[in-house]
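Severity: low
Component: inverse-folding endpoint
Summary: output formatting inconsistent between runs
Steps to reproduce: submit the following structure tokens with default settings.
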């Protein structure tokens, strides 16, 4: 693909809460494409209405993406332009998008991803933990493989970022406290960019107790956990001297 190859598929980030967090470029692209692929047409429909845009929409979500991909590729190959959006944030990050992008690239169809809103970046920066090196884990496995993944993370030195649902956050905090240590610093961000935005930073055990005591937990959640501190290896002064004598 050359620079002159026309873009047929755009990945367009949408606000995670505050509607002001959409870029001018995203508004322009949504207004120019032929079709908008939406995770939920009702949610995206309200956003388009807010922006004063009227566009044909197609439902594209986790439960129908495998069935939709072939039809969408045929339309794209005929020159139709499309914008893929999720309910909130950047499509393809813990949301459908990867499969369509992969197949487009395999067929030589140009794809562009616009920069924009995503939940884990503000949560990471608000945690106050190191952002130089981090790992995005998305959602932990719900059942199969969950304990194995948790044990693997016990050795992770980078800051870890997770997405979690309100009804599982307490269980996740308790399990992480058990595996990583009750005193491991962590941060829970909830309702980012919205009116009742909240970030609580404390050891894992305290966070688990905090959220377990609440009558209700609402909103999308990003959990940030400080990585394991790297142990300093004491330098063997005598070994170094012996090596230098050789």
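Observed output (run 2 of 3):
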């Amino acid at each position: 693909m050359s620079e002159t190859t026309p873009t047929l598929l755009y990945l367009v980030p949408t606000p995670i809460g505050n509607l002001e967090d959409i870029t001018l470029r995203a508004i322009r692209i949504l207004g120019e494409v032929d079709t908008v692929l939406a995770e939920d047409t009702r949610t995206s429909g309200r956003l388009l209405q807010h922006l004063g845009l009227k566009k044909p929409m197609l439902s594209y979500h986790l439960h129908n993406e495998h069935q939709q991909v072939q039809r969408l590729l045929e339309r794209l190959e005929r020159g139709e332009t499309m914008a893929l959006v999720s309910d909130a944030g950047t499509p393809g990050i813990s949301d459908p998008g990867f499969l369509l992008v992969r197949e487009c690239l395999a067929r030589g169809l140009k794809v562009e991803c616009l920069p924009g809103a995503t939940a884990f970046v503000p949560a990471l920066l608000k945690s106050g933990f190191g952002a130089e090196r981090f790992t995005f884990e998305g959602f932990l496995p719900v059942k199969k493989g969950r304990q194995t993944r948790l044990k693997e993370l016990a050795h992770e030195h980078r800051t870890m970022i997770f997405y979690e649902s309100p009804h599982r956050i307490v269980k996740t905090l308790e399990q992480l406290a058990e595996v990583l240590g009750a005193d491991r610093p962590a941060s829970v961000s909830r309702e980012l960019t919205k009116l009742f935005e909240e970030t609580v930073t404390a050891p894992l055990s305290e966070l688990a107790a905090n959220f377990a005591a609440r009558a209700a937990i609402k909103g999308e959640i990003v959990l940030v956990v400080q990585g394991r501190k790297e142990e300093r290896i004491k330098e063997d002064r005598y070994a170094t001297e012996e090596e230098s004598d050789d």
